[in-house]
Structure formats: structure tokens, C-alpha cells
Task: inverse folding
């Protein structure tokens, strides 16, 4: 079924085109390739990917072969937004208006080392899409903490659980007043597809962040990648929204939570992941308290965006 | 200086079906053609024909398809060596 706004609302209507070719190097059950398959179905072949050092750069496979059927610029860990700015300028000079430069970077490359380049590109209004797939750690180098690793999570550099809270990159991006920001996750392919498609139609800087549960990094069975993504949304550990020209709108299950549907207990999500196995009671209580606080913030935003006098 | 350029290739990392420990098998009688297995396969190893078709040369046996099938039409069984 295709809705009146041209949005795809059923999986069977997603395009058959396949840009992630069989026989790539990702671990079995990898969330990145699920996300990239769906994203490229929306973006189409007139896309230039800019990929820094991260799992995706390995998944691509080795010279002289690549597993992705679109042009790719591989670039240093910190430099993807700067590289994409160059690609965007070149496309402008060449008057290639229908080609979209798209950064595809991990949370390490976005929240941490690439943040300065990202902020600069957004402030310049660079005409590109920046996608951060967020697996909440540096997975390519063997599971180290990142600025996106949540409080309490085990990584090889936080082996008694991370003591600090994760930051919210999408909210930092909001402070750049760009025309389009969205969050998504792989369990909702129609939502991810529609957001990618929408981003593609808009001019200027666009930012999309995709939660990507990683089986070896989060310590769960490789068959549960999509289930983990869905549970993250249902428990409120991840939130789905869009910010179009500064106007925020919550989507899907997250919107339903704000309309009164109960959030599933976050333990349901935590207990499926080995990285939270060591959690003490007081740490669990702290996680729940921080989550409640975050959802109070969302509720406030939701009420102000939906109040009739606006 | 020569720029290193890679070209798109199916099986760029070889026949990844050899990684598989568990093998998905589809029961067509149960399948309701919702295509969840197709969209969620991380390895693009399921294609759409009249029914889903699994490419065993490349399927890594993750079991995501079986886990996401709403009617349990896909079963994972140990790969025979
Ligand atoms: C300047 C620099 N520092 C460190 C590295 C090593 N390195 C390569 S990938 C990577 C981690 C990437 O993490 P993230 O961006 O979260 O992507 P993921 O691996 O999770 O896909 C690191 C530390 C590097 N390539 N360059
Ligand atoms: S470590 Fe995680 S994100 Fe990286 S390739 Fe493996 S499953 Fe994918
Ligand atoms: S087991 Fe995994 S790789 Fe194989 S067809 Fe199912 S989802 Fe694809
Ligand atoms: S997920 Fe199950 S029911 Fe849906 S198409 Fe695949 S096998 Fe058929």
C-alpha cells in the first residue's frame, strides 16, 4: 500500500533494487547492512557514499573488489563531513544536481572524532546527507566505549560498566538549524525508507541517525538484531522523531508512548544484552531514572508542538 | 600516482555461505509472503520470487529471517558437514 503522500507503508512495496551485494564481510546478523540496504533502496544509484574508518569500510570488502554497488569515497576516521563537503562542491561545479553525497559513519566517527568536521559542514549548510549508524561503541576495533555508549554498558574500555551518560548527537545537530533531522532504527524499515526518501528531496544539510544493535558488541544472539532494535523503541531506550525546519514530530511507537501507551520496562531490553549483565540494582535504578527524565523532556516537547495555540 | 579503485562484485569476500553453522529452510505452506525475511536479511541472501528464495551460496546462517518471520515458516537446522 502506498499512502497519499507517496510514503511507503508496507514492506512489500519497498523497491527490489539491491545495492549491498551478496558476499560482503559483515558479521552474521549485522545491523549495518540491514540499514544500508534499506537506505540505498530509498537513495537510489545516484548516490556517492563517503565512508570513514568504521565497520562499514571493512564490510565493503578488499581492493580491487567492493560489495556496494554505488561509488564510495573512503576517507580518514575524522574527515567524512569534510570529504563530503568537497564532493558536494565538486557536484555543484559540475552541475550534477541529482547526485546526492551521503556520509555513512559510525557513532565513533560522528559523536567523537568526526564531530568538528560535522559541525563545520552543518554550519556551512553543506548540501549533503549525514547518516550516523549508532551501534553505541567502536565496534570495528573491538568494542571500545564511544560518546554514544550508554551509562552502565560494558565495553573493553569500560569493563565495569560505563560511568558516564551518553550524549545526544541529534540534539547537538538541532542547534545547527538544519532543514532536516531524523532518528530511525532497522526494525521499522518503512519509517527508515520514508525518512531517507524525504531527506533526499530536501536541499541543504540533512542528518539521520539510525540505532544499529550489534550482536558481538552488545553480546546478544545474532538472530535477535531486529528484535533488539524494536525493543529499544518499545522500552523508550531509543526514540523516533523528525525535525523539519525546526518543527519536531515524534513518529511511530514513540509517538504512541507520548499519546499514553505504556513504555515497556527497560529491563526487557537490558536483560537480553550481555553488556548489561553485571548491572547492580542501584545502576539499574539510575538508568530508569535517567530514562524517565528524558521522556518527561520529550513529553514537554510533544505537548508544546501539538498544543492548539501553536 | 595511480588511484586505487575497487569495482562492485558479488561475492567480493568469497562464498560467504561457507560461514554458516545453522541453515534456514522455508516451509512454503506456512509462508504468507509478508517479505519481512527479505527486507531484514543482512546479507541480501533472500530474493523475491513467487516465494522467498534463499541463496545458500551467500547466506551466513544468522537466523534473523527465522526470528522475524511472523508465522514461523523458516526453521534453522544444524548444517550437515
Ligand atoms: C585517527 C584514527 N584513529 C583511530 C583509528 C582506528 N579506528 C578505525 S575504525 C575505529 C572505530 C570506529 O568506530 P565507529 O565510528 O563507532 O564505527 P563502527 O566500528 O562501530 O562501525 C577506530 C578507532 C583510525 N582509523 N584513525
Ligand atoms: S561488529 Fe557489529 S556492526 Fe561491526 S560488522 Fe560485526 S555485527 Fe556489524
Ligand atoms: S539466515 Fe541470515 S543470512 Fe541466511 S537468509 Fe536468513 S537472514 Fe539471510
Ligand atoms: S517472513 Fe515468513 S511469512 Fe514472511 S515472507 Fe518470509 S517466510 Fe514468508
Result:
Amino acid at each position: 500500500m502506498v499512502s497519499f503522500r507517496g510514503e511507503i507503508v508496507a514492506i512489500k512495496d519497498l523497491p527490489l533494487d539491491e545495492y549491498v551485494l551478496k558476499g560482503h564481510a559483515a558479521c552474521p546478523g549485522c545491523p549495518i547492512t540491514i540499514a544500508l540496504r534499506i537506505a540505498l533502496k530509498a537513495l537510489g544509484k545516484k548516490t556517492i557514499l563517503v565512508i570513514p574508518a568504521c565497520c562499514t569500510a571493512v564490510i565493503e570488502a578488499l581492493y580491487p573488489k567492493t560489495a556496494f554497488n554505488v561509488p564510495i569515497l573512503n576517507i580518514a576516521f575524522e574527515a567524512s563531513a569534510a570529504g563530503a563537503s568537497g564532493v558536494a562542491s565538486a557536484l555543484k561545479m559540475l552541475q550534477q544536481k541529482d547526485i546526492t553525497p551521503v556520509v555513512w559513519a559510525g557513532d565513533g566517527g560522528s559523536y567523537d572524532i568526526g564531530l568538528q568536521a560535522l559541525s563545520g559542514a552543518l554550519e556551512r549548510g553543506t548540501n549533503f546527507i549525514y547518516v550516523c549508524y549508532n551501534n553505541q561503541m567502536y565496534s570495528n576495533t573491538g568494542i571500545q566505549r564511544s560518546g554514544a555508549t550508554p551509562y552502565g554498558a560494558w565495553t573493553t574500555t569500560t569493563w565495569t560498566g560505563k560511568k558516564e551518560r551518553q550524549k545526544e548527537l541529534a540534539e547537538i545537530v538541532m542547534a545547527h538549524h538544519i532543514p532536516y533531522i531524523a532518528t530511525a532504527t532497522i526494525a521499522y524499515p518503512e519509517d527508515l525508507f520514508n525518512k531517507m526518501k524525504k531527506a533526499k528531496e530536501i536541499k541543504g544539510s540533512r542528518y539521520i541517525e539510525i540505532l544499529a544493535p550489534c550482536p558481538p558488541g552488545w553480546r546478544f544472539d545474532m538472530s535477535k538484531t531486529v528484535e533488539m532494535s524494536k525493543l529499544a523503541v518499545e522500552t523508550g531506550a531509543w526514540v523516533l522523531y523528525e525535525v523539519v525546519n525546526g518543527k519536531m514530530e515524534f513518529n511511530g511507537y514513540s509517538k504512541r508512548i507520548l499519546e499514553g501507551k505504556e513504555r515497556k520496562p527497560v529491563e526487557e531490553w537490558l536483560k537480553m544484552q550481555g553488556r548489561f549483565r553485571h548491572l547492580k540494582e542501584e545502576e539499574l535504578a539510575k538508568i530508569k531514572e535517567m530514562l524517565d527524565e528524558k521522556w518527561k523532556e520529550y513529553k514537554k516537547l510533544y505537548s508544546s508542538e501539538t498544543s492548539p495555540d501553536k | 600516482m595511480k588511484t586505487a579503485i575497487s569495482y562492485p562484485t558479488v561475492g567480493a569476500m568469497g562464498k560467504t555461505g561457507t560461514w554458516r553453522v545453522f541453515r534456514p529452510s522455508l516451509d512454503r505452506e506456512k509462508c504468507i509472503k509478508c517479505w519481512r525475511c527479505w527486507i531484514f536479511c543482512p546479507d541480501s541472501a533472500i530474493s523475491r520470487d513467487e516465494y522467498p528464495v534463499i541463496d545458500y551460496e551467500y547466506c551466513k546462517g544468522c537466523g534473523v529471517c527465522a526470528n522475524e518471520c511472523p508465522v514461523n515458516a523458516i526453521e534453522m537446522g544444524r548444517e550437515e558437514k
